[in-house]
């Protein structure tokens, strides 16, 4: 079995070493133009040239959960595209979202500002029932986040494409129920894949349907958000603020207004990092399953976009 590794924005060598240790029977190399035909590829933002040159690929493993970087490409016909399925990202995402939510709900930013001035000053306790959390995208990560948020006893709403029943979550699905979902939510968490159907979903029209003083946590993709609409809604007081981990252009340009906005918290696409050891173990396990003719989870439907 032959495996090629082609990673943009990531060093391929540690992946090659890890894959060789996990699959000693396989021949594993960094892809170069003209490489011999392989069975599997491990990729991040792959080049069309590799797909064109490798028509015999049977599996293409994306080292992230989001496959938006592959959507414009023509993959070899017989290849299943497989994304990371949690692989240690779920718990990180749960930490990140709970931190952002609780920091906002408990007003820790205001406490920190007072502490910097040496001031001992209380804030009025807020009611968590007045902070229902709406999660856009109830897949692997959305469900993990919903579970963590529910542990802190916030009401949780979830929105997905198909109908889903998740314990402790009020479920909404499809475009027809989006408005009702937004109206039932005050804190909005975006955990959708970026597809033609979801691009720009965080815009004036949708964000202004949130309960008053709404708050946005975007941990999915920058392309979900219409940036100017967010700033206008915060500046007008309709939204209380936002925590943003992902941006249309990454790194976020140094002169971007998000960096300095007092009600926007920015992190550098760090909410759930790909963990190499977990990811390699998952990919190796799935390659062996495909070799045995078994079905694997996390197979992407390119027509659907995720
Ligand atoms: P999944 O594919 O498991 O879940 C996607 C969810 O979105 C599903 O519930 C799906 O609905 C729903 N969905 C998709 N399209 C629509 C639509 N048009 N309308 C309504 N619901 C829709 O993905 P993951 O949970 O694993 O990951 C989600 C995203 O998180 C990734 O695509 C990636 O962009 C982002 N991400 C960001 C990271 C970061 O560091 N910031 C790290 C990892 C991921 P249904 O259940 O019906 O299929
Ligand atoms: C991912 C990411 O999609 O890191 O996994 O953003």
What does this structure look like?
- The structure is a single chain.
- The chain is α/β, with parallel strands linked by helices and 306 residues long.
- It has helices at 13-22, 48-53, 89-105, 108-116, 140-151, 178-183, 204-207, 227-235, 257-260, 276-291; strands at 2-7, 27-30, 40-44, 59-62, 80-82, 133-136, 156-160, 170-173, 187-190, 214-218, 239-244, 264-266.
- It has a seven-stranded parallel sheet with strand order 8-7-6-9-10-11-12. A five-stranded parallel sheet has the order 2-1-3-4-5, with helices on one face.
- Helix 1 (13-22) links the parallel strand 1 and strand 2 (27-30).
- Helix 1 packs across helix 10 (276-291) and helix 3 packs across helix 5.
- The mean pLDDT is 98.
Name some characteristics of this structure.
binds NADPH dihydro-nicotinamide-adenine-dinucleotide phosphate, 17% strand, alpha/beta, Rossmann fold, binds oxalic acid, 306 residues, seven-stranded parallel beta sheet, single chain
Q: In brief, what are we looking at here?
A:
It is built from 10 helices and 12 strands. The protein is elongated, with a radius of gyration of 21 Å.
Instruction: Give the full name of the CATH homologous superfamily of the largest domain.
Output: NAD(P)-binding Rossmann-like Domain
Q: Which architecture of the largest domain does the CATH hierarchy give at level 2?
A: 3-Layer(aba) Sandwich
What about the largest sheet? Answer: 7 strands, parallel
Helicity level: 25-40%
* Uncertain segments: none
Intertermini distance: 27 Å
Number of strands: 12
């Amino acid at each position: 079995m032959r495996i090629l590794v082609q990673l943009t924005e990531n060093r391929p060598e540690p992946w090659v070493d890890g894959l060789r240790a996990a699959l000693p029977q396989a021949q594993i190399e960094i892809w170069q133009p003209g490489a011999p035909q392989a069975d599997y590829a491990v990729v991040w933002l792959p080049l069309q040239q590799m797909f064109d040159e490798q028509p015999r690929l049977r599996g293409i493993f994306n080292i992230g959960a989001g496959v938006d970087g592959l959507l414009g490409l023509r993959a070899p016909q017989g290849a299943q595209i497989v994304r990371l399925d949690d692989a240690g990202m779920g718990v990180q995402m749960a930490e990140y979202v709970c931190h952002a939510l609780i920091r906002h709900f408990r007003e820790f930013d205001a406490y920190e500002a007072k502490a910097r001035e040496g001031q001992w000053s209380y804030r009025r306790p807020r009611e968590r029932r007045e902070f229902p959390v709406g999660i856009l995208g109830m897949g692997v990560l959305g469900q993990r986040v919903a579970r963590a948020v529910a542990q802190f006893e916030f009401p949780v709403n979830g929105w997905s494409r198909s109908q889903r029943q998740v314990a402790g979550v009020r479920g909404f699905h499809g475009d027809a129920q989006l408005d009702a979902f937004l109206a039932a939510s005050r804190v909005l968490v975006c955990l959708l894949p970026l597809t033609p159907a979801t691009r720009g979903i965080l815009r004036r029209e949708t964000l202004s349907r949130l309960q008053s003083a709404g708050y946005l946590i975007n941990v999915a993709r920058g392309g979900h958000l219409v940036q100017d609409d967010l700033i206008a809604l915060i500046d007008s007081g309709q939204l209380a603020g936002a925590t943003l981990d992902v941006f249309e252009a990454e790194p976020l340009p140094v002169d971007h207004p998000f960096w300095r906005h007092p009600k926007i918290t920015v992190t550098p696409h760090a909410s759930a990092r790909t963990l190499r050891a977990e990811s390699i173990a998952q990919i190796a396990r799935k390659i062996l399953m495909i070799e045995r003719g078994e079905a694997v989870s996390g197979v992407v439907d390119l027509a659907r976009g995720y």
